[in-house]
């Protein structure tokens, strides 16, 4: 029996098609390399030429072979089957079996939009209706920037984002690190605001016995944002319990989830921090690897896999206010890929 690849009609979800999705870190895409990635059920290649990044369908128009099996030669993608060359605009420049013929205009790669920002490669399968979301501290020299992940979840992207913006799971999923199971924080009433960047909460305070790499107890105030359906952020205001910290210690994290399939995600993390000059990327990665592994197991276990947008499904409490507003917002936006 011929096996059929699972496909999803992403055209039914213009919200995600017309949005930006991270598919790689800049550091993983040196010149001369072709990366094979998948987003919204579509296989793509990404590659770079000088300061430009490209994202194309992983398909050669000649006979449908995968360009990801090809290679880069003189700044052009070479198809592995008959050696057609494609330049960075997607045009075929050479058909080796007919070297003197000018390739027809139709001999082109299927080109999508691609951009490089915050040391990530972002792609859009459609016509983006929004800019890439803000990373507020990116240009602030007081903040050092790091990356962690990627983390691979056999889970839905919206469930993954909802987990990222949920402070009431800390004492249980991250017991001993971000909370204390036997003395779980009561979450004070907070509001969720809408602004030009999406959703934003008031500051939500929790106690963390191992609040960061300094391995010391802290009070942590989180302001969460949901910029886009699959991109969120928090700014964590950290106050060291013994008073040894700074006046305004901030640990900020942006996460963006690559929707591979409705139930498969890649989690990308960017960190900005204005304290702890001794902190290395290894310290950040070690902690986030642990925390996101703990989250992965829980999020992968959630049923149904697709996030239910009908608020009569599941049971929402006041402390879940952000999740409630997030689901309402997804529904208003009309997101369908991965929602129920
Ligand atoms: S299939 Fe790509 S060159 Fe023939
Ligand atoms: Fe978590």
Structure write-up:
By secondary structure, the chain is α+β, with helices and mostly antiparallel strands. The chain folds into 2 domains: 10-124, Rieske Iron-sulfur Protein (3-layer Sandwich); 144-333, Naphthalene 1,2-dioxygenase Alpha Subunit, Chain A, domain 1. It has 5 helices and 18 strands. Strands 11, 12, 13, 14, 15, 16, 17 and 18 form an 8-stranded antiparallel β-sheet that branches. A 6-stranded antiparallel β-sheet has the order 1-10-9-4-3-2, with no helix packed on it. 37% of the residues are buried. Residues 1-8 have low confidence and may be disordered. Bound molecules: FE2/S2 (inorganic) cluster and fe (ii) ion. The site of fe (ii) ion has 6 residues, from α4.
Offer a few descriptive terms:
single chain, 340 residues, alpha+beta, Rieske Iron-sulfur Protein, Naphthalene 1,2-dioxygenase Alpha Subunit, Chain A, domain 1, 8-stranded antiparallel beta sheet, 6-stranded antiparallel beta sheet, 5 helices, 18 strands, elongated, disordered N terminus, binds FE2/S2 (inorganic) cluster, binds fe (ii) ion
> What compounds sit in this structure?
FE2/S2 (inorganic) cluster, fe (ii) ion
CATH topology of the largest domain: Naphthalene 1,2-dioxygenase Alpha Subunit, Chain A, domain 1
CATH superfamily of the largest domain: Naphthalene 1,2-dioxygenase Alpha Subunit, Chain A, domain 1
State the end-to-end CA separation: 31 Å
Low-confidence stretches: 1-8
The number of helical runs is: 5
């Amino acid at each position: 029996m011929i096996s059929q690849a699972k496909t999803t009609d992403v055209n039914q979800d213009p919200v995600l098609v017309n949005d930006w999705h991270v598919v790689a870190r800049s550091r993983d895409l040196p010149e001369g390399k072709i990366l094979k990635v998948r987003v919204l059920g579509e296989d793509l290649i990404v590659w770079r030429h000088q300061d430009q990044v490209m994202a194309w369908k992983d398909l050669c128009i000649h006979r449908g072979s995968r360009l990801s099996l090809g290679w880069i030669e003189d700044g052009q993608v070479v198809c592995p089957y008959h050696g057609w060359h494609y330049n960075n605009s997607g045009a075929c420049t050479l058909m080796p079996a007919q070297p003197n013929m000018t390739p027809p205009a139709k001999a082109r790669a299927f080109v999508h939009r691609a951009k490089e920002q915050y040391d990530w490669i972002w792609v859009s399968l459609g016509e983006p209706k929004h800019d890439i979301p803000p990373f507020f501290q990116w240009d602030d020299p007081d903040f050092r920037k790091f990356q962690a992940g990627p983390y691979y979840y056999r889970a839905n992207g919206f469930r993954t984002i909802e987990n990222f913006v949920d402070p009431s799971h800390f004492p249980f999923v991250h017991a001993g690190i971000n909370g204390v199971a036997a003395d779980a924080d009561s979450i004070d009433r907070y509001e969720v605001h809408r602004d030009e960047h999406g959703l934003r909460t008031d500051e939500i305070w929790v106690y963390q016995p191992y609040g960061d790499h300094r391995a010391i107890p802290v009070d942590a105030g989180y302001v969460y944002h949901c910029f886009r359906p699959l991109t969120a952020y928090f700014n964590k205001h950290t106050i060291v319990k013994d008073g040894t910290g700074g006046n305004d210690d901030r640990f900020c994290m942006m996460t963006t989830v690559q929707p591979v399939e409705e139930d498969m995600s890649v989690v990308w993390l960017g960190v900005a921090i204005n304290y702890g000059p001794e902190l290395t990327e290894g310290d950040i990665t070690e902690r986030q690897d642990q925390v996101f592994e703990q989250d992965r197991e829980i999020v992968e276990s959630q049923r149904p896999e697709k996030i239910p947008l009908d608020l009569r499904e599941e049971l929402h409490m006041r402390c879940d206010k952000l999740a409630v507003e997030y689901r309402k917002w997804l529904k208003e936006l009309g997101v369908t890929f991965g929602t129920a």
